[in-house]
Each structure stands twice: as structure tokens, then as C-alpha cells.
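To the wet lab folks,

You asked to see what we're planning to order before we commit. Fair enough. Below is the target structure as C-alpha cells, and below that is the sequence we designed to fit it. If anything looks off to you, flag it before the synthesis order goes out.
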């Protein structure tokens, strides 16, 4: 049976106007650009109330790195008070969402994703030895770091999409910079 190694979760909370279709497009194009497979695992749309609709989404992107290691990043998206608003930008009308959104990003390294070491007691014992003696350092130092930095890159792109990055350094004077 494959083993999942996950640690840090990243999250984004935002309230205001944003392009929901652009959010889909950003994640899918990032996945395609780096050779990942994207799929929507779950979609829930609750009956709208006067404040707007509520949606819960779960996306999964994954990439087979080697015959032994696989990357997986799960997005859990929760949207509240979602109202569609028509906005005019550059002389064109566009539909945007005015909502509260919370996104959790969970990266996972999956080892033995092809279940090569699951057949019988000897196979499981051999798989445990193979991981601890041969692959553990490689997975922890190389594969996990690469996945973490890819996730941080994606997190930064999402923050840029929502225009959440600061444009100034709060500690500029403290650091002696002008």
C-alpha cells in the first residue's frame, strides 16, 4: 500500500471582487505548464440565500515524478455569499464574483504509488526496508523540498491573483532602507 507524507498546509482567505473563472484558469494552466494532471474531485453548490450562494470545491493535481514517487496537491475551496456582479473593464462587460473565499492547499508526497511493495508479508517488509535504507533521505531532502517550493510558488501566484501581496516593506525604516 502506498504511503502518503504530508506536512504543511497553506491557506488563503479573501473577501471582495474576483474572477472565479480566472481562478480555475490559473490553477489549471499552472498544472499544465508544469506537467501535472488536474481534476475536480468534489463540487457542492448549496441553495443560494439573499446574501448569495455557497460552494465547496475540491481539486487535485498530481504528477508522477518517478516509478516510486508521486506528487499530489489538493485544494479545498469554500466560497460564501457569492454574488455575480457585472463590471465594465476596458470598455468590456465582465462577470465577477463578490464573495468570501477560503482556499486550503495541501501538498503530499506519495511513495510506492504503484503498490509494488504490497504483495505478501515479504513484499511489505522489503518495501519498508527499501524506503528506510535507500529512499528516505532522497524523499525528505529532494522530493519533499521540490514539492514544497512548487506549492509556495503556486500559493504566491494565488496571492498575486487576489492582489494580496504587499507592495512595500513594513520594516523598511528598521532595516535602514529608504
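Sequence we intend to order:
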Amino acid at each position: 500500500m502506498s504511503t502518503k507524507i504530508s506536512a504543511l498546509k497553506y491557506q488563503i482567505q479573501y473577501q471582495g471582487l474576483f474572477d472565479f473563472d480566472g481562478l480555475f484558469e490559473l490553477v489549471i494552466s499552472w498544472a499544465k505548464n508544469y506537467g501535472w494532471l488536474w481534476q475536480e474531485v468534489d463540487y457542492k453548490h448549496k441553495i443560494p440565500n439573499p446574501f448569495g450562494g455557497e460552494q465547496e470545491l475540491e481539486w487535485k493535481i498530481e504528477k508522477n515524478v518517478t516509478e516510486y514517487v508521486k506528487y499530489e496537491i489538493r485544494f479545498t475551496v469554500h466560497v460564501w455569499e457569492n454574488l455575480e456582479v457585472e463590471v465594465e473593464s476596458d470598455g468590456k462587460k465582465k462577470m465577477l464574483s463578490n464573495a468570501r473565499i477560503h482556499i486550503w492547499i495541501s501538498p503530499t508526497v506519495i511513495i510506492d504509488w504503484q503498490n509494488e511493495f504490497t504483495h505478501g508479508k515479504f513484499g511489505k517488509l522489503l518495501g519498508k526496508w527499501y524506503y528506510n535504507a535507500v529512499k528516505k533521505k532522497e524523499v525528505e531532502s529532494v522530493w519533499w523540498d521540490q514539492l514544497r517550493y512548487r506549492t509556495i510558488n503556486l500559493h504566491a501566484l494565488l496571492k498575486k491573483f487576489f492582489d494580496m501581496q504587499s507592495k512595500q516593506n513594513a520594516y523598511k525604516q528598521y532595516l535602514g532602507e529608504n
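Structural context that might help your review: The chain has a mean pLDDT of 82. The first strand starts at residue 3 and ends at 6.

Thanks,
Computational group
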